[in-house]
Amino acid sequence: MCEKNMIEIRDLTEKNVDDIATFCSLGEVKNDFYLQGEKRKKKFLLEKLKKGGRAKIAYKENESVVFIEYYLIEDAPMNITGKDIMIIPCMNVKVTERKKRIGEKLLRASIEATKKMGKKAITVIATEWEDFMPKAFFEKNGFENVTNRSPINIFMKKLDEVENPQWLKLLYKQKPVKGKLVIDIFHTDQCPFDWQNTQRVKKVAREFGDSVVVTDFDTNKRENILKYGTQGAIIVNKEYLGTGPPLSEEEIRKVFKERLKATK
Asked: What is the pLDDT of residue 24?
């Protein structure tokens, strides 16, 4: 789909997977951990395409400026459940191209593709943060909040009558170890920044030697998301380790010291 303003929308394929871009870094430099995550993300995307997943890239003068991915909710890398619905876990718009309606073009194309697939709704997990999946953008395009909690909610655009999707409940119960920092990491390869967070956590954890117990849980498979009730979380002594923007090593180290101290 090509237009006079040189915007072209292409479906993601193996041929253009290297064109995917992440514009939600909030100015953070792409380090080795992020680059590892990006490589894993590309492999993840290609696997999801084989199972009914979809992704699109908007190009401006042959440069990728907007990216969107959406999946069958039954195979979504997200902690929600539903039926006959597609879900958007991520949409990125290059900062210099925001408020130019390019994102709207890509979103509309995804909605039309969802209709052609015979699905009854398309949903998104939107936030109150302006720099990542802002709810105002999706509300403007006809999505309605169906969970009403802060600061993250499920928003849905109905195409036919369908039941609202629901959050999964966390089913995993962490087992404390006296005098230890117990760190449980649940991770999919859907987001490069999640991989970056997990690797930073492991790096800092090594500084604490035998005082730390780290366990990895692979949630790339939907069955494991349903088993644990989450697709991405870092739980440290029964509490989550932050949500939102990427964590710095300093922030992680501070939390570890505070929670380890509380065990003594």
From this structure: 67
Number of compact structural domains in the chain: 2
Rounded Cα distance, 145 and 149, in Å: 9
Distance CA 91, CA 24 (A): 9
The gap from C-alpha 129 to its chain's centroid, in whole angstroms, comes to 14
**pLDDT-derived band of residue 114, with 50, 70 and 90 as boundaries?**
very high
Q: pTM of the predicted model, to two decimals? A: 0.87
Tell me 134's DSSP state: B
- Please report, for the domain that includes residue 40, its CATH number: 3.40.630.30
- Residue listed under structure tokens 């936030």: 127
Q: In degrees rounded to 5, what are phi and psi of residue 23?
A: -115, 20
Note whether 13 and 88 are same-domain residues: yes
Longest Cα–Cα distance in the chain? 66
C-alpha–C-alpha distance, residues 74 and 66, integer Å: 25
pLDDT digits (tens, 9 = 90+) for 115-171: 999 999 999 999 988 778 899 999 999 999 999 887 899 999 999 999 999 999 999
**Contact at 8 Å (CB) between 102 and 65?**
yes
CATH classification at residue 241: 3.40.30.10
